[in-house]
């Protein structure tokens, strides 16, 4: 078990660097947001985690065409992921459109 | 030139657009472009994956059937997402964010279920799969409950007997079950599916005891959960854009959650484990009754017409009554007569931080008229008339004076410092947090009962005749 963990960390060391640095970037970037923008920001961030759709597409590409069940599940996952991405960005844009200076 | 490198570069561009997009989203002037910028990076990452992704161990076949299915799925999702986003009313925004968040969580959970079988024997990969699946499922079912609560289908918080202990036990059991699966690696899908179901149940248990007023904090927290689930996916596929996107949202979402808690002056643990937003909360203020004073619409009009400075305190009730446009009309009318008019925006006005700004911006209220709490509070002493419309808890002095009140410690708008306070309410019902408001019984306060839209419309026509 310990062996597995160490080799897993070792094999993924670059990803772990990215992970740790991204945590700090996320905190830094959001740090000083005025309360006015909290709702659009939450909504925009919500759209960004829709990037999980990339994983759903990868699963589908890796699935053999005769595995109907897996293809069906993958199909649902791609639909849900797209909803998250498109809905999220569209609704954020709609909100921000109204923030124009009058 | 290796195709893999092309995709790597596409992912690099995607990751950078996410960081810059989020950065631009934090400034009013650049926010809209920032959002579009991140959307562009996302489109690039999706297109790149469809075109160029290859399994690390070899070639990925692209049978037309698979590609067609993927494109059809994206088409359906785009159409549905676009239509919902453009048709929903601005007051329903928090529900919608919650719903879209749930979709992302469900997507992450499904990926986990599908990848499990392919990764038996690889402990590290299985651990990320199981973690992503648990977090994604919790985020999905939790978001659906949050959606139902915001949309008031589910009104009262549901508290099972000793729900805090129960929830903690279920959570520990869930984690132990997950670790067991990673360790034992059963080949049959029964246990992983059971784990998936258990995580869904936990998501429901996690959110049902929390009151409606705290849903924004919960959504923000679940938002960062989904981010984490996406990041686990990134780990599994060695996919940088999923990792950076997921972690960015995970950490940004956590900061946002804490910022919201800070605005309410309550620690996060108190939101999750505390009893607030209904239930037994009413007891505190009930015995402190005094007399309530009514005011007529024409008296209100006179008071405002001759005031030097009027501050409007809008709450969610204003939006529910669809009175944003009338209030803007009132504001411009007073402004034309030389009255200085401003809006006092509490950090949690509306159903989410910043929600009220969106709602007022929708009805063309100028940005610089919206003043945040810290800046407007010292101004109330110089204010002749405060008009509170559809707000309640954010102007409740019990937050400062009554340690037994559930909102004690939450910073509020100091409207009682103004010369006159006029409160428009439909009736004497308690606010969203379910507690009585001492402000209504103070001598300076007059109540203007009635539906916000109707009352304000009459007020505007009364003013026009003066």
- Average per-residue pLDDT of chain B, rounded, comes to 88
Strand content of chain B: 5-15%
Oligomerization status of the protein chains: heterodimer
Helix content of chain B: 55-70%
Low-confidence stretches of chain B: 276-287
Low-confidence stretches of chain A: none
- Strands of the largest sheet of chain B, in order across it? 3-2-1-4-5-6
Percentage beta strand of chain A: under 5%
Sketch the major β-sheet of chain A: none
Largest interface: A-B, 84 and 119 residues
Largest pleated sheet of chain B: 6 strands, parallel
- How would you describe the shape of chain B? elongated
Beginning-to-end CA distance, first to last residue of chain A: 62 Å
Tally the beta strands of chain A. Answer: 0
Give helix and strand order of chain A, one letter per element, not per position.
HHHHH
Round the Cα radius of gyration of chain B to an integer and report it.
26 Å
What is the overall number of helices of chain B?
Answer: 17
Q: Helicity range of the residues of chain A?
A: over 70%
Question: Which key phrases capture this entry?
Answer:
heterodimer, A: 102 residues, mainly alpha, 78% helix, B: 6-stranded parallel sheet, 6 strands, 7% strand, elongated
Can you tell me about this structure?
The complex is a heterodimer of chains A (102) and B (466). Chain A is mostly helical. Helix content of chain A is 78%, strand content 0%. Chain A is flat. With 466 residues, chain B is α/β, with parallel strands linked by helices. Chain B contains 17 helices and 6 strands. Chain B is 58% helix and 7% strand. At the A-B interface, helix 1, helix 2, helix 3, helix 4 and helix 5 of A face helix 1, helix 2, helix 3, helix 4 and helix 5 of B.
Secondary structure layout:
The complex is a heterodimer of chains A (102) and B (466).
Chain A: H1 2-11, H2 13-30, H3 38-48, H4 52-62, H5 68-97
Helix pairs in contact in A: 3-5, 4-5
Chain B: H1 3-25, H2 31-52, H3 64-87, H4 93-116, H5 123-150, H6 163-184, H7 190-207, H8 215-236, H9 240-263, H10 268-273, H11 297-305, E1 309-314, H12 316-320, H13 324-336, E2 340-345, H14 355-362, E3 370-372, H15 373-376, E4 385-389, H16 398-401, E5 420-425, E6 445-449, H17 452-464
Parallel strand pairs in B: 1-2, 1-4, 2-3, 4-5, 5-6
Helix pairs in contact in B: 1-2, 1-9, 4-5, 4-8, 5-6, 5-7, 5-8, 6-7, 8-9, 11-17, 13-17
């Amino acid at each position: 078990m310990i062996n597995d963990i160490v080799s897993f960390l070792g094999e993924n060391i670059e990803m772990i660097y990215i992970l740790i640095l991204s945590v700090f970037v996320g905190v830094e970037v959001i740090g000083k947001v005025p309360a006015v923008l909290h709702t659009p920001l939450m909504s925009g961030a919500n759209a960004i985690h829709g990037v999980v759709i990339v994983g759903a597409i990868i699963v589908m590409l890796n699935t053999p065409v005769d595995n109907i069940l897996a293809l069906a599940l993958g199909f649902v996952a791609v639909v849900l992921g797209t909803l998250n991405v498109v809905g999220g960005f569209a609704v954020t844009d709609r909100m921000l459109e109204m923030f124009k200076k009058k | 030139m290796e195709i893999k490198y092309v995709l790597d570069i596409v992912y690099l561009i995607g990751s950078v657009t996410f960081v810059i997009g989020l950065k631009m989203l934090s400034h009013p002037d650049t926010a809209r472009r920032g959002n579009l910028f991140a959307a562009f990076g996302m489109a690039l990452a999706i297109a790149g994956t469809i075109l160029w992704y290859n399994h690390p161990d070899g070639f990925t076949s692209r049978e037309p059937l698979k590609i067609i299915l993927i494109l059809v799925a994206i088409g359906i999702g785009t159409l549905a997402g676009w239509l919902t986003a453009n048709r929903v009313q601005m007051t329903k925004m928090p529900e919608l964010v919650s719903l879209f968040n749930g979709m992302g969580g469900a997507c992450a959970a499904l990926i986990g279920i599908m990848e499990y079988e392919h990764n038996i024997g690889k402990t590290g990969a299985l651990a990320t799969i199981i973690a992503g699946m648990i977090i994604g499922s919790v985020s999905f079912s939790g978001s659906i409950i949050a959606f139902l609560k915001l949309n008031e289908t589910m009104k009262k918080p549901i508290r099972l007997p000793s729900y805090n202990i129960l929830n903690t036990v279920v959570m520990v059991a869930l984690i132990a079950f997950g670790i067991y699966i990673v360790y034992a690696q059963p080949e049959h899908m029964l246990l992983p599916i059971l784990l998936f179901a258990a995580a869904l149940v936990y998501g429901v248990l996690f959110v049902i005891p929390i009151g409606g007023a705290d849903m924004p904090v919960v959504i923000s927290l679940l938002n960062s959960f989904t981010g984490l689930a996406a990041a686990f996916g990134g780990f599994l596929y060695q996919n940088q854009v999923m990792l950076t996107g997921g972690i960015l949202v995970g950490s940004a979402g956590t900061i946002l959650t804490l910022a919201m808690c800070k605005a309410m002056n309550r620690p996060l643990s108190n939101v999750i484990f505390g009893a607030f937003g209904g239930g037994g909360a009413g007891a505190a203020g009930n015995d402190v009754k005094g007399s309530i004073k009514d005011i007529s619409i024409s008296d209100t009009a006179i008071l405002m017409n001759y005031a030097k400075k009027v501050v409007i305190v809008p709450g969610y009730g204003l939006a529910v009554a669809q009175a944003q446009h009338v209030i803007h009309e009132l504001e411009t009318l007073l402004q034309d007569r030389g009255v200085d008019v401003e809006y006092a925006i509490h950090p949690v006005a509306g159903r989410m931080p910043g929600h009220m700004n969106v709602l007022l911006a929708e009805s063309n209220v100028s940005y610089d008229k919206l003043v945040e709490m810290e800046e407007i509070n010292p101004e109330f002493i110089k204010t002749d008339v405060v008009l509170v419309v559809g707000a309640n808890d954010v102007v409740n002095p019990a937050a400062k004076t009554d340690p037994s009140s559930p909102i004690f410690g939450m910073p509020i708008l100091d409207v009682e410092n103004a010369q006159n306070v006029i409160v428009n309410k439909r009736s004497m019902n308690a606010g969203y947090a379910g507690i009585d408001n001492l402000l209504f019984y103070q001598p300076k306060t007059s109540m203007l009962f009635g539906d916000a839209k109707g009352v304000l419309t009459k007020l505007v026509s009364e003013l026009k005749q003066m």
